[in-house]
Amino acid sequence: MTAGRSVRVKICGITDAATALAAAEAGADALGFVFAPSRRRVTPEQARDIISRLPPFVARVGVFVNTPPGEVGEIARYCGLTAVQLSGDEPPGYHVDFSLPVIRALRLGNGRPLPNLEDYRCDAFLFDTYREDCYGGTGSTFDWSLLKGLPRPKPFILAGGLNAANVADAVRVARPYAVDVSGGVETGGRKDIQKIKEFISLAKGVEP
Fold first, then answer.
1. pTM of the predicted model, to two decimals?
2. Catalytic annotation, pick one of 29, 122, 128, 180
3. What is the rounded distance in angstroms from the CA atom of residue 93 to the CA atom of residue 66?
4. What 8-state DSSP symbol labels residue 15?
């Protein structure tokens, strides 16, 4: 985590404009739009409409799983994304031919070997919990201390089972650049504005 700055927060799985605007008002630094199979999936048209209503200085991150690079680029341009997140089995050399920042999601824990970060072409890493045949959204944490021994050539983003009850501890242990949450701020499968506000307040309340 950058000295003197609180952790950034990404609220992922945004599916409607009201939630997007409320999350931005609550202090979210980034919003995630899922273009992969998921109950939180949005179409490019839906994402473009939501993004068109957002205030400036809130990052718009598209989440993709094993999508051809050309298609990623088309959706990014159409929707007005400011970053893309690759959350599938894309090989280390996978390359998208445009200038947007790329976040590589890597899954840890449950016996998964630690990756060689130098192999990947990206601008930041997101670490999530490993579960076979699941590309995120497990609702489970991994051992955050695994990140202590990894070199940090790029910013680290922490995901996987985060919620208001554990995010402060996660920030203290893993010292990430940012945290990413989706299910941990939902009630009955829908984003809960009060949970979003509480999560952001607790995450950013940890001393840098």
1. 0.93
2. 128
3. 13
4. -
Give CA–CA dist 194/188, Å, rounded.
14
199 falls within a domain: yes
CATH number of the domain bearing residue 166: 3.20.20.70
Residue 84 lies in a domain: yes
The answer to whether position 118 is within a domain reads yes
Encode burial over 169-203: b for 16+ CB neighbours within 10 A, e otherwise: ebbeebbbbbbbbbbbbbeeeebeeebbbbbbebb
DSSP 109: B
What is the Cα–Cα distance from 167 to 179, expressed in whole angstroms? Answer: 8
Is residue 79 annotated as part of the catalytic site, yes or no? Answer: no
pLDDT in tens, the chain (208 residues): 545 689 999 999 999 999 999 999 999 999 999 999 999 999 999 999 999 999 999 999 999 999 999 999 999 999 999 999 999 989 888 888 778 999 999 988 777 777 888 888 899 999 998 876 666 666 789 999 888 878 888 999 999 999 999 999 999 999 999 999 999 999 999 999 999 999 999 999 998 7
69: its two tokens: 């690079």
Whether 1 is in a domain gets the answer: no
Q: Across-strand partners of 6?
A: none
Domain span at residue 86 reads 8-204
Count of domains forming the chain: 1
Catalytic residue, chosen from 12, 79, 122, 180, is 12
